[in-house]
Design a protein that fits this description.
The complex is a heterotrimer.
Chain A: H1 6-23, H2 25-28, H3 64-100, H4 102-117, H5 120-129, H6 135-146, H7 148-163, H8 166-172, H9 177-213, H10 225-232, H11 241-278
Helix pairs in contact in A: 1-3, 1-11, 3-4, 3-6, 3-7, 3-9, 3-11, 4-7, 5-6, 6-9, 7-9, 8-9, 9-10, 9-11, 10-11
Chain B: E1 28-37, E2 40-50, E3 55-59, H1 66-73, E4 81-89, E5 92-93, H2 99-109, E6 110-113, H3 117-120, H4 127-138, H5 143-156, H6 162-165, H7 175-187, E7 193-197, H8 205-222, E8 225-230, H9 233-239, E9 242-247, E10 250-256, H10 257-262, H11 267-281, H12 316-320, E11 326-327, E12 340-341
Parallel strand pairs in B: 3-8, 3-9, 6-7, 7-8
Antiparallel strand pairs in B: 1-2, 1-4, 4-5, 9-10, 10-12, 11-12
Helix pairs in contact in B: 4-5, 4-7, 5-7, 7-8
Chain C: H1 2-29, H2 34-38, H3 45-54, H4 61-73, H5 87-122, H6 126-139, H7 142-156, H8 168-198, H9 201-208, H10 213-251, H11 256-265, H12 269-297
Helix pairs in contact in C: 1-4, 1-12, 5-6, 5-8, 5-10, 5-12, 6-8, 7-8, 7-10, 8-10, 10-11, 10-12, 11-12
Classes of the chains: A mainly alpha, B alpha/beta, C mainly alpha.
Chain lengths: 279, 350, 305
């Protein structure tokens, strides 16, 4: 059995810890509870780190640590869901375009090209302008803006596989389209998407944070790492923890996904072999 | 970057770099050259001489060490290669010079022609400028003079409309024209030594014939010594005066081309010739002659003669003692003066 | 060369038209009553009906679209719901402001990335450090980096201004942020291309011509490195523009990005749509410029389809 690459272990460990926190979030307390008496000092400014408020309080007297944990929960949820949706849609588009060729291919790939060229923050703002704030909005935006990358990757892979003759051979033997897709294309495409999804998830985490920061994603009072930072920005000079803590959390999540991605890439040749055997 | 070596003096009256210096000895003289890549010895104690005005073919298959020998002597191998031994070009000890000393004069001492002209030319610079560079940097010309000199150099290699071609980029030229550009760059300052690394291998047969013709013309005019690496015996027959055959990093036979073709003194040379004869004139349908076995892997240094496993007449002494390059027949003397072969049974092959 | 450029131009136009259609769909078709948005406190249905008639909201969609498109061609991007000014008059002056920041950012990312890439190639010991720097820069979201820089250089060290504005002093930190975020990509490209070049045959040819190391680096290697870098700038534009928008918000740089985000906050749709259209046109235009530049630098791409 090969030794697992350290990136995979490190990344997975961080993700597991965050998942644990996310699941245990309710045990930490209520993220929206405002304690105007104890959390805000005599001048109205939030208190710093103490035993009751390990990360201090935010400007509205809420417990920063509790909000941080809930924010991590949101980020993980968004990352996982939007990762899945964007990859499924993207892979489907890529498969269809690569397998059917002709006008279908042209049409789908034109859409993909446009999707790839979009400035994603601006486009996100546009979509945000017509939807109401919340986790659904963010997931929709990320899905719409992220599917073109896997579509392009899958398309390229399908073309490459076609070049190796699987498809023609299958058709010559009389297999139907679906069977060819399932038995010849799917294993390669799946392993490629497995290798790609950690990178996709990392981008999703970063993008959700950016959107929420710009009030185009999840808006307060719901805690999101991004909107916690925009809330805390005005207090950055005297309570930098309000910005630094969620910032580090975002970085930790992103790095964790990136490391897992590196680890999976190193591991990928094995994945390929497995999928061959599985046929 | 890479280490560079410079070559010897030439006899051309128009030598710009070493103008006024009298000719001083052979174009190239190599003694005891060793080239190591890490623990692998690619060239083992090689000695070779190229006289002025002579074409010496360095023959061998891939992995024989011929490229390492030629480029090592010209100090063009990467830093990972350890080159030792004495190399003089036109009487100047090039192996002992510092890198900076050598770089200053190398373009006047040795011109190099690479194998793949497409890769050897900078894709984003017009070819005229690439040729002109040599003049601008080493002959002290300004941009305009260098450009004119470049056009003249292109004309010298029989490129038609050299002024128009000078403005083109490498990918816009045909393979043959690119090779001519490489040659123009190499002969720009009329160096006494030219090292050519299989320049016609990648060309089709008719283009190859043109290039060989061009080199023949140039050689008549320039009187530089040319070290021509090849594995093609046909090219050797057409172009070379002398030949040196390499096997497993060692020179196993040297001599005049007629001598070697008529009376080879080493089984490997015989094998190469036999292969060629069969290709050209053997009966149709008969199996082609093949030297059975394969050369030793790089780094393997078996005791005794490296060719022994494939030799039909190997004896015990061949397994014990690696034969040195010895004169064949009655001609004696310094390497290159006569027919020499590294074989215990050198008289028995023809 | 002209053919390749024309094809790109046509594709760009199609992309812009696509964006315009999308913007139209989102602005007028998606639920949300524009009339109410313009006059939220109006409680007379007659007023609302009047507004709707003015905006042609009762006409069939095709007519509305033709209207919209026609307006666009005349440079009329609609009227802000909140500020009651034409969107064009709001966007116009800010174009230059954003442009300056964008240019400064590109210069920063190419310089920083290029330097990192060159250092990593030439000095083996630095390579691991550069790799670690790259990974960190890739993992940090742009606004977090911006705020950190603001905290350190603005508040703690006091060498950068902490209030918004469009002055030269205020340009430093946002441009630096953009530069640092984009640097890893350029470092990678420069390092890869330099490695390829240094190992290539034509560098050996240059060496055989007796050219000095610095000459070779300057006149041969760098040229070959420029081409993929310029391509990257072109490809990068979409995501780069996004970065510019975010950075403007972080540092309160009064450009188009800040305008759009504020408009989003104020539920002022026309401004958001107008900004996106301007953004799309800008991306297409600069992509074309990058293509031309690349064809200029690398002659092999001139006949590319």
């Amino acid at each position: 059995m090969r030794r697992w690459p350290w990136q995979l272990i490190a990344g997975a460990a961080v993700l597991a810890a965050c998942a644990g926190l996310a699941l245990a979030a309710p045990l930490f307390g209520n993220p929206n509870h405002q304690d105007l008496v104890h959390a805000l000092g005599p001048t109205g400014l939030p208190v710093g780190p103490s035993s009751k408020y390990p990360l201090g309080a935010d400007l509205l007297g809420r417990n920063e640590l509790v909000r941080l944990v809930y924010g991590i929960r949101v980020s993980l949820t968004v990352a996982l869901v939007s990762n899945a949706t964007s990859i499924v849609i993207g892979a489907a588009v890529g498969l269809l375009a690569g397998y059917f060729r002709g006008p279908v291919e042209q049409l789908l790939m034109r859409f993909t090209d446009i999707g790839l060229a979009l400035p994603y923050t601006l486009a996100g703002l546009v979509i945000a302008a017509v939807m109401s704030a919340g986790i659904t909005r963010v997931i929709v935006i990320i899905t719409v803006l992220f599917w073109s990358y896997p579509a392009r990757l899958v398309y390229g892979e399908v073309l490459r596989l076609r070049g190796r003759g699987f498809v023609e051979a299958g058709e010559a033997m009389g297999s139907g389209g679906l069977a060819i897709v399932r038995r010849h294309l799917a294993p390669h495409v799946t392993s490629m998407m497995i290798a790609y999804s950690p990178l996709n998830a990392a981008s999703a985490v970063a993008f959700e944070a950016t959107l929420s920061y710009l009030s185009a994603g999840i808006n307060p009072p719901t805690a999101s790492l991004g909107n916690m930072i925009s809330d805390g920005q005005t207090a950055i000079s005297y309570a930098p923890l309000l910005v630094i803590a969620p910032g580090l959390a975002i970085m930790a999540l992103t790095l964790a996904f990136l490391l897992v991605g590196e680890g999976v890439k190193a591991y990928n040749p094995d994945l390929r072999r497995l999928s061959w055997l599985g046929r | 970057m890479t280490r560079e070596g410079s070559g010897g003096s030439s006899l051309t009256a128009s030598t710009t770099g070493l103008a006024g210096e009298p000719p001083r000895g052979p174009a190239l003289e190599i003694s005891g050259l060793n080239v190591r890549y890490g623990s692998v010895r690619a060239v083992v104690d090689a000695s070779l001489k190229v006289e002025a005005g002579q074409v010496v073919a360095l023959i061998g298959e891939t992995g024989s060490g011929k490229t390492s020998l030629a480029l090592g002597a010209a100090r063009l191998l990467p830093r990972s290669a350890a080159v030792s031994g004495l190399v003089t070009i036109a009487g100047r000890d090039v192996s002992g010079m510092s890198a900076i000393e050598f770089r200053a004069i190398r373009a006047q001492l040795v011109g190099c022609i690479a194998q793949d002209a497409m890769a050897a030319l900078n894709p984003v610079v017009p070819v005229g400028r690439q040729v002109g560079e040599v003049f601008a940097v080493h002959a002290g010309m300004d941009r305009r003079q260098a450009a004119e000199a470049a056009v003249a150099a292109l004309a010298q290699v029989e490129i038609r409309r050299p002024d128009a071609v000078a403005r083109l980029y490498p990918h816009q030229l045909s393979g043959g024209m690119r090779q001519r550009v490489m040659i123009a760059m190499a002969i720009a300052l009329s160096p006494p030594l030219i090292v050519a690394d299989e320049p016609t291998t990648a060309l089709d047969v008719s283009t190859q014939a043109e290039i060989l013709g061009l080199v023949g013309d140039l050689r008549a005019r320039m009187r530089s010594g040319i070290l021509w690496i090849t594995h093609d015996m046909g090219v050797v027959a057409e172009l070379a005066d002398w030949a040196a055959v390499m096997y497993a990093g060692q020179i196993v036979e040297t001599g005049q081309v007629e001598q070697i073709f008529d009376a080879p003194a080493h089984p490997y040379t015989l094998g190469l010739l036999q292969t060629r004869r069969d290709l050209r004139s053997g009966p149709v349908g008969a199996p082609l002659f093949q030297i059975r076995g394969s050369p030793p892997a790089p780094g393997e240094e078996p005791a005794g003669c490296p060719f022994r496993p494939r030799c039909p007449r190997a004896t015990q002494v061949c397994a014990d003692v690696n034969p040195a390059l010895e004169p064949v027949g009655t001609t004696a003397g310094w390497p290159g003066a006569g027919h020499r072969a590294a074989c215990h049974h050198s008289g028995t092959w023809s | 060369m002209a053919r390749a450029l024309t094809r790109r131009l046509i594709f760009g136009l199609i992309a812009v038209i696509g964006v315009i259609t999308l913007a139209f769909v989102l602005e007028f078709v998606v639920p949300g009553d524009p009339a109410k948005a313009i006059a939220p406190r109006a409680n007379s249905s007659a007023v609302l009906a009047n507004i709707r008639a003015q905006l042609h909201l009762n006409q069939p969609l095709i007519v509305q679209f033709a209207d919209y498109f026609g307006n666009l061609l005349r440079g009329n991007l609609g009227t802000s719901y909140v500020q009651h000014q034409s969107v064009t008059s709001l966007i116009g002056p800010r174009l230059l402001t954003t442009g300056v920041l964008a240019l400064a950012g590109v210069i920063a990312e190419v310089l920083i990335g290029g330097a990192l890439g060159i250092l990593a190639t030439l000095y083996g010991r630095v390579r691991a450090l550069v790799g670690a720097i790259n990974l960190t820069l890739l993992a940090v979201p742009i606004f977090v980096l911006g705020l950190l820089l603001l905290l350190v250089f603005g508040f703690r060290l006091g060498i950068a201004p902490v209030t918004g504005g469009a002055g030269a002093a205020q340009l430093a930190l946002p441009a630096l942020t953009l530069g640092l975020i984009g640097a890893p990509w350029y470092a990678q490209i420069v390092a890869d291309q330099m490695q390829d070049s240094l190992a290539s045959s034509y560098v050996r040819t240059a060496v055989s011509k007796g050219l000095s190391d610095s000459y070779i680096l300057r006149r041969h290697v760098l040229r070959n490195v420029l081409s993929p870098a310029v391509t990257m700038i072109g490809l990068d534009l979409g995501s780069y523009l996004s970065g510019v928008v975010t950075v403007e918000v972080v540092f309160v740089w009064p450009g188009i990005g800040l305008l759009a985000v504020n408009a989003l906050h104020d539920l002022d749709r026309p401004i958001v749509m107008g900004t996106v259209i301007v953004g799309a046109v800008a991306v297409v235009f600069f992509n074309l410029v990058a293509d031309v530049a690349r064809m200029f630098i690398d002659p092999r791409t001139r006949e590319e389809v």
